[in-house]
Amino acid sequence: MKFYHPLLIASLAVFSLTGCKDDSTSSEGDYGSEAAADGFGSIIGTETGGAGASMGDASNLAEGFSIGNFASGKNEVQARDSAYDDATKTHIITLSRERTFNNSSYSASLVYRYNFFTGPIATADFTKGITTKIAMTVDGRLMATSPRIDLNDTSHAAWELTNLGAGGAPPTLNGTYWRSGVHTLTTAAGGKEVNVEQTVTFNNNELHRDNKDSPIWMTGTATSHYTATGQNGLSIVRDVDATFNGDGTATLIIWRTNPQGTFSDTATVDIQRGRFMQWGRR
User: Fold this and answer.
1) According to the model, what pLDDT value does residue 113 have?
2) Which structural domain, as residue segments, surrounds residue 31?
3) pLDDT tens, 169-210?
4) How far is CA 14 from the centre of its chain?
5) Number of structural domains in the chain
6) Which of 11, 86, 91, 207 counts the most CB atoms within 10 A of its CB?
7) Sign of the CA dihedral 41, 42, 44, 49?
8) CA proximity to 152, closest of 131, 180, 174
9) Which residues, at least 6 apart from 147, have a Cβ–Cβ distance to it below 8 Å?
10) DSSP code at position 72
11) Can you name the residues that pair with 173 across neighbouring β-strands?
């Protein structure tokens, strides 16, 4: 899975804010790339309320379950409201959710809109073995804290799930995930704040899980474009290529360009816990 632009941009912005050297010429493991990796992991992480959380809800729909009518481990649903538009066959779920896990926590307000399809025809309900596609959008407001980075964001996800009920094969997800807000870089930049905007595009990702209460793990790839603006008004842009390794981790290639050329850093992040793990491939 690829989710890392926020980290890169945040890193660059951090350098501007702290007066450190430009990270576009530094080696792997510098503060800029570390910040980018932190951002990517948190924005994707299930335990930090990232894209993985709504992917888990989408996976539940693909198994015939509902969204938010149960507490998944420590992922507590605080309130839930539902509606249905018969004219468009659109289901609407509004919920608030909180989670605490060790040193990480998040709170989120989310609005889900989704439709079931059999071929090109929208249907009222999911029927295992008959439904061929689920189309979903998720709009959210989220605050998260973790040992390395704090987030205060708005988000929009647009998911399409196919390969449903195909002999037990995992569903396939394509779509985009957008986040914008303020990130506090606790570890990489000593508490500096940057304004970030990031879009991640997921390409044919298979969603795996042990049961409806367990976290998602993925295979496939993603690309990300990230922009971060420091308190001094300077902006940094990063592009990231991510590969989801099928074990709850992702390998990131973080690209940075300057007049001397194009450079890359490689890092591994935990996309379930939403955190940086190490430099290089695991």
Assistant:
1) 97
2) 5-279
3) 789 999 999 999 998 876 655 677 888 898 999 999 999 887
4) 22
5) 1
6) 11
7) positive
8) 180
9) 103, 104, 186, 187, 275
10) B
11) 161, 205
Cβ neighbour number for residue 237 with a 10 Å cutoff:
15
Which pair of structure tokens corresponds to residue 52?
Answer: 């993985």
Alpha helices in the chain (DSSP H): 5-18, 31-44, 51-62
Residue 242 identity (one-letter amino acid): A
- 10 Å CB burial of residue 129 (0-12, 13-18, 19+) is exposed
Residue that is written with structure tokens 């959380």 in the block: 53
Q: What is the pLDDT of residues 39-60, one digit of tens each?
A: 788 888 887 888 888 898 898 8
Residues 4-15: pLDDT tens digits?
333 333 333 344
DSSP string, 132-174: -EEEEEEEEEEEEE-SSEEEEEEEEEEEEEESTTSTTPPPEEE
Neighbours of 69 (CB within 10 A): 12
DSSP 89-100: TEEEEEEEEEEE
